[in-house]
Amino acid sequence: MPLRERDYRWNFIVDSIDFAFFSLGMTFGSILTLFPLFAKNLGAGNLEIGLIPAIANLGWGIPAILGAKYAEKTPKKLDVVLKFTLGERLPYFFMALISFFVVPYSPKLALYLALLMLGIATFSMGFLGPPWMSMIEKVIHPSKRGTFFAVGNGIGALMGVGGAYLARYFLSSYPFPKNFGYSFLCASIALLISFIFLALTREEPDKEAKDDVRFSEYIKGIKFVIRDENFRSYIVYRILSALAWGYSSFIVVYAIDRFSIPDKIAADFTGLFLISQGISSFFLGPLGDRWGHKIILSLGKILNILALSFLLLSKNPSNIYIVYILIGIINSVGMVGDSAITLDLSPRERKELYIGVLNVAISPFSFLSPLLAGKIADSMGYENLFLISLVITLISLYILVRKVKDPRRI
Q1: Mean pLDDT score of the chain, rounded to an integer?
Q2: How many domains does the chain divide into?
């Protein structure tokens, strides 16, 4: 039975709540602030800190083509998501256990176990990326997709403000490692609530499921994606964006090293980042739905250039607060604009393959970017890292403006 208007409204509500609580869970284990700080307290150097976003980015990308193939042959995408989603949620509970029971005896072992848990979580997310996006394409009305990503991301970010200050309370009131253990435990609770609302999604099964083919045959379809000039240009833009974004994990470390600020201030940065992300989302989604999502992606690049300029010119800690306000908006642009325009650029009959190819193409560069950033920071200093990121960001803006055509504006 086809979805009715009330089904679309129901899905908008329950999937927005799922999105919001999932985002809240990610706040308590933020790879931008709290997780790098956790690793630093365990004795990690810049290379190991760089592994955090590297593992995450590799996990989000590499399994995507497998998830795409699995989703294409499954009439109901929600079944795939529910089947594998525990792999992206349970690791945060195990991170809490590691904090409570392993860190006091072996910090080094705890560091590597935490990185392993991060890998399991993000590889599960990567596998589920195409099935979840395919499900959203079916259950959310096309005219409301940008608004959906905005509402879920925005509410999650604003809820995350409370989460960030709760994390700040943990960091300042409890000794290490219990403070991080409580934060990871809160992450697992938020992800459990998210799961409950996800399971309430109403989805009509595909009328015709694609035949299951050998993986070697399936990946031959990649050539059709690469021949799509507009999508190919978008892939290049995303690769350059991934390379430039490596600097983001080192902002908090740079701030602590340069200005000698206390660890608990990292939670303040997270809160400011989330307020900025949440408020901006509510404007970016409807703007993209009305005028096209390429406009907000261009805005994100301009703000990225501004953030890097502030870092290069920073003379006191107050500039870092401005940077995190900008980073919040930039992150919102990615969550809303990139998600929505990817669905716009992908033909419905091959959307899983397009999404899978995009994620796989980006992942090696997303993996290398923070590792290279760590190496550059160690050998050349943070200022040169920010300068190199600025140059790459300018190139990516040129590709976006000149080469990528927004389907909503054609």
Answers
A1: 88
A2: 1
